[in-house]
Amino acid sequence: MVTAEADTQPSPALLKVLDGVVDLHCHSGPSPFPRRLDHVEASYEGARIGMRAALVKSHHHNTVMDLLAMGPRLAKAPTPMYGGVALNSEVGGMNPSAVAVAINMGGKCVWGPTVSAAQHIEAHRHDDGFPHNTGNLYEQEVSVFDASGEVSEATDLVTRLVGDADVLLTGGHLDGDSMVAFFETAHRNGVRRMLIHHPDYIINASETAIEKMIGLGAFVEHELSMYDPRVKAPDWPIEQLVEWIRRIGPEHTVIDSDLGQVGNPLPVDAYLLVTQQLLDHGIPAADIRQMMCRNTAFLLGLEETNR
Fold it and tell me: N or C: which terminal CB in the chain sees fewer CB atoms within 10 Å?
């Protein structure tokens, strides 16, 4: 059982804004990282704000297997939970077989390399605030390129599998140039649903790279965890998120939680707190729903468009 941080009831107006949110970045467990709640508990938590669906992310394994194993418990749970696979060394890196397994089991997302991306490995050397594994997982670098510097055949096949299945592809924690090459390949192979994670955290993608990827149809993601003051790092001011929204536009922006870790607020509590902050800083309710409900539903394949 998990416990909410606040005893006060959110206002009906705030709940109306949040009704139907889709969390594309839920870190419920199991995981090698300590988690505050499991996928079933996350489903019941989501019901507090009328969450439409949540996508469960692990850096280390195919989360579709978790959800299938929890099927009897999830059958009556209120919020539909979806999974996928991240292309880190634990699943063989840029591995079309791992992608085919996840998709064939019902997976809705393929995450590009995260903890195995060179950009992440370099950032992690300097204590970027990212959590540590509970043991050595012997992770190795994973790239979208082959030894000659071209996009690898495995990367090309991964994107074709994603395109054929019409599921979500994310850039993981790749650097900007690698992510552009990844998404250009994906776009040629028919991928419609693409997402750039936290561009100013770990990835540090350039404005030019972000513009190129938006031009390919990618959305820019920002996480509640980075703006909730109860999370130790990076602890950014809400004005930074407001500036991103106004610069990129709500039509290209996604906001989700990136929460579920031990020591951090519950995802739903972050939705309540940060959404109210956005409203207080002049972001219209319609724009918030575009970023949290419509864009996210499209990316998860719940809708054909985000309009």
Answer: N
- Helices and strands, counts by H and E, the chain: 13, 9
Is 25:256 a contact under the CB 8 Å cutoff? yes
Dump pLDDT digits (tens) for 154-185.
Answer: 999 999 999 999 999 999 999 999 999 999 99
Strands 193-196 and 22-26: unpaired
Three-state DSSP string of 169-216: EECCCCCHHHHHHHHHHHHHCCCCEEEECCCCCCCCCCHHHHHHHHHC
List beta partners, residue 254.
221
Phi and psi torsions of 246, nearest 5°: -70, -30
**Would you state the pLDDT for residue 5?**
65
Distance CA 106, CA 306 (A): 22
Cβ proximity of 275 and 265 under 8 Å: no
Q: Contact at 8 Å (CB) between 271 and 44?
A: no
Give me the phi and psi of 195, to 5 degrees please: -140, 130
Residues 232 and 228: their CA atoms lie apart, in Å, by 9
Residue-wise pLDDT for 108-147, tens only, equals 999 999 999 999 898 876 554 555 666 677 889 999 999 9
Nearest residue to 269 via CA among 86, 87, 106, 46: 46
Burial class (CB in 10 A: 0-12, 13-18, 19+), 118: middle
Query: pLDDT at residue 226 above 70?
Result: yes
Report the run of H or E that residue 243 belongs to, with start and end. helix 238-248
**Distance in angstroms (rounded) separating the CA atoms of residues 235 and 209:** 25
Q: How far apart are CA 113 and CA 292, in angstroms?
A: 24
